[in-house]
Every structure is written in C-alpha cells, then in structure tokens.
Amino acid sequence: MAASLPAIRRALDERILVLDGAWGTTLQSMELGPADYRADRFRDHPRDLTGDPDVLNLTRPDVVLDIHRQYFAAGADIATTNTFTATSIGQSDYGLEAAVRDINLAGARLARQAADEASAADGKPRFVAGSVGPLNVTLSISPKVDDPAFRKVSFDQVRAAVAEQIAALAEGGVDLLLIETIFDTLNAKAAVFACEAVFAERGLRLPVM
Q1: What pTM was estimated for this model as a whole?
Q2: Are the CB atoms for 96 and 38 separated by under 8 Å?
C-alpha cells in the first residue's frame, strides 16, 4: 500500500480534504499563445499545440507550478496533476503520443513540489492525486450510426494507454489516483483494470478515487 495512505487516513479523521479547482478554465483565462505550448522542445512540431493543457507541464512548468501553489494557498489539501488528457489516445490529437510519459512524469513532479512546499510551510500534510481523465473515444457507443458494433479503439488499447499514464504518475510521486469526468463506464472500467495491472507489475498499490 502507498506510504502516504496512513497520513491520508489520519488527515481524513481530522477534517474534510479539499481538492483543488478547475484547470482547463484557469489555463484558458491566462491567454497563453502558441509559443507557450511549443517552447524549444516542440518548436518544429508539425501540428498546432495551442490549447493542449497537458503539454504545458513540459513547455511552461512555471505556469503549472504557480497554479498548484495558488490552489494550496487558497486552502486545497489535494492537488490534481495537470494530466487530464495525458494518454497516448488523448494526445494523438496533437501528435504527442511519444511525449506522454514525460508529460505525466513532469505533471506529477510539479504537483509533488508544490504539495511538499505547502506542507513544509505550515506542517499540514498535502497530497497529490494523479488525474486520469476522459478520452476522446468511447468503448460503449459506436461513432457510426449505421454500424453499432464499430469501435475506434478496443478495451485492451484503452487499458494499455491508461496504464502508461498511471505508471508515469506513480513514478512521479503521486499519493493517489483520480479517475475523473469519465462519461463512459466501460472506459472507467478499463482505467480501473489499468490501475490493477500497474500495481501488480510494480508491486505497489495506490488509493484510487
């Protein structure tokens, strides 16, 4: 079991733990430009990256870290990583499948840094939840009205994509995992299966929300 679980349980015995707030709208309000999303690493990337919030973990880590700090200053107990769409399936819209591990690893480490800073400042433990968000595909419904059996992806493909994300989040130091905002329960099931696969492979177990 995760080393942080006893601390989470002690904190829950004392108070309600508060999650941070919205990430997408916060980033949108900052009016970042194409250069913020590309930086040097993706300067010559062939696709438009503007609007991909997760790539900012690599290109504008200062922005991501500052948002984490602001949420902790506002009273949050748990930071959610800026990895809402950071699977190879989600990042395929931007052609960034090869950067998925780095995006998740950086996202976890930035949240971890902010959480540890806040904890050190006042002695109150803060925690990091690895955000595993929705996909741009569904396992339950065909996107073709004339072919109800058609699926763009398989259950195993979704499970593998989420497992890649979870493994990087765990390596980056998250305390728990948050499977969030998933409208398709079969997608959510694949995410849970991915958790179990990573836990078994790595000999660890993180709490899952």
Answers
A1: 0.95
A2: no
Q: Give the span between the Cα atoms of 78 and 192, in whole angstroms.
A: 21
What confidence tens digit (pLDDT) does each residue in 92-136 have?
999 999 999 999 999 999 999 999 999 999 999 999 999 999 998
| Cα–Cα nearest to 159, from 187, 130, 129, 200 | 187
Quickly list DSSP for 73-131: HTT-SEEEPS-TT-SHHHHGGGT-GGGHHHHHHHHHHHHHHHHHHHHHHHS---EEEEE
Enter the tokens of residue 28: 């949108």
Q: Which long-range contacts (CB under 8 A, 24 or more apart) does 206-209 make?
A: 206/2, 206/130, 206/170, 206/174, 206/175, 206/176, 206/177, 207/2, 207/5, 207/8, 207/175, 207/176, 207/177, 208/176, 208/177, 208/178, 208/179, 209/129, 209/176, 209/177, 209/178, 209/179, 209/180
Hey, what amino acid is at 100? V
